[in-house]
Amino acid sequence: MKQLKVLYGITGIALGLLVAFLVFGNTAANDTANSDATNKSNAEKVYVAPGELDDYYMMASGGHSGQLFVYGLPSMRLIRQVPVFSPDPATGYGFEEESKEMLGGYKWGDFHHPAISETEGDYDGRALFATDVGNNRAAYVDLETFETTDIKEIPNVSGPHCAAFVTPNSEYFFAPTRFSVPIGGEYADLDEYSDTYKGVMTALKPDFKNNQIDVAFQVMLPPWSYDLSDAGKNKSDGWGFLSTYNTEEATTTLEINASQNDRDYIVMFNWEEMAKEVEKGNYTEVNGVKMFDPEENSGSIYLVPAPKSPHGVDVTPDGDYFVANGKLSPTTSVFSVEKAKEAIKNEDFQGEAQGLPVLNYDSVIDKEIEVGLGPLHTQFDDKGNAYTGLFIDSQVVKWNLDSGKVIDKTEISYSSGHLAAVGGDTTNPGGEWLVSLNKISKDQYLSVGPSHPESMDLIDISGEKMELVANTPSQPEPHYAQIIDADKIETTEVAEKDTDRENAVWSTDDAHIEREGDELHVYGVALRSRFVFDAESDRPDVVEAKEGDTVYFHITNIDQDEDITHGFGINGYNENFEIQPGYTKTLKVEVDESGTFPIYCTNFCSALHQEMTGYLLVEPK
Ligand code: CUK
Ligand code: CUA
Known about the structure:
binds dinuclear copper ion, Immunoglobulin-like, mainly beta, seven-stranded mixed beta sheet, Methylamine Dehydrogenase, Chain H, 8 helices
């Protein structure tokens, strides 16, 4: 079409020129044909026909949306947004009582790094852990239902950023902080920074039986910023690795002041040892948490110098090396776990910082790879290769772990933050796909004004050369993602009919309304295509309340069929929630104004969905 326009536009030009244009046009056409061919094969790679399913789930953090984004790969289709740290009007997360209590009134969260639970260093698909940099919380997402089942506030911390990362058998997941504050967040002048301010790392323990998490213990760390971390695996099992910046201990204008040192540190800590010490009683209790101080219990924590404000540190699949990305250095540093252990044994220290021993750089470094500008994070494949994303150069670099040679570079659009490969941080990487989670999308999608989406590039890494295959926009703001084999996830479609469940009513005949003083309890059911609140009444779908009442709607969706969700919205009341098949949900409403308020099902559930309505009648006092 475009070429035709070009031709029409030049009809008046001299013949020679026209010929030249035709030739040029021909070349262009050939180019198009060629790129069509490539596009076609790439299109085929990501095409998942209607009715067919993707091979992988990609669990991407939703950044300051506080949500979890679930994608299918290779299609890159967004399947679900699971609310974790912030309310969600569509599902009623944060509206109905259970999730409202769990959210604790918070309006937002900042979720950076999902961590799928692991067995023997590989994703097991049971649960996903998350932390909230914005409001200091940790969450458990049950991967049977893709629902957040527990949120805990973490005391004594400020911005649990470099988390979650899980130990190889999900013994713990760790959450070290981005900000250092006086313990407990009390007031202390910034002049007291170096002595009074602390970084704190939290060890959280998952309880898979009850889909919960608990704070197990905390570790006091120097007043630096902790960035990204990874747990050891295989040979380095029992250890964990954190990156730090601002070892300058700057308190203002960090952009300049925290970028002075040529080297910051990788913190190497022995979590098994720490857990044992805490078990033995080597801790002080701070705000109800067992606080372990490594300065007083030497032998569990060491510092490894690493170039220039490292961002991510990632452990190789065999657990033999940890790879640090100095974001202000053009290199990625590969450190040997064996050499580090040797240096620890020989007390081969080059000094100490904040009372912690610093290992000799030359004794621990294995190699430095010249990757390019702005390396942030590294992932791995099944063939001994590593992939590092470059923020400044907007590239992904493939390099070989053994040889240290750069094999290939591919352009991404633009500014890679994290990378996620299939099982890319486990003992068992897949080696098929890599996604670059980009921070800037600029011209990649139709413009929607000054705010642009974030962007994800899908790269085929199965061959020697990487191949950029597709991209997709995303809402703000995925930081890290993990890609897990779809076979490892086993979901529940319908909640079991649990007759012991509190507030549940399983038949229309049992629906009833109880009054206790000015509390009205509605034990109702939702089914296709009506609500029944009171079986005895000749207006079974009407709730009659009095001004000043507190009304509890306990609604059970008694439809036991896949994907038959009912919604419950009260017109003019600012309330809505969903009830999945077999679930019971409670909504508490203070009716402080008289009036007539239609209730309706908000989730299209049958041909008679529009008829699924009722009334809340509030009589004046
Ligand atoms: S940080 Cu965001 S791109 Cu929070 Cu994982 Cu590196
Ligand atoms: Cu129930 Cu629509």
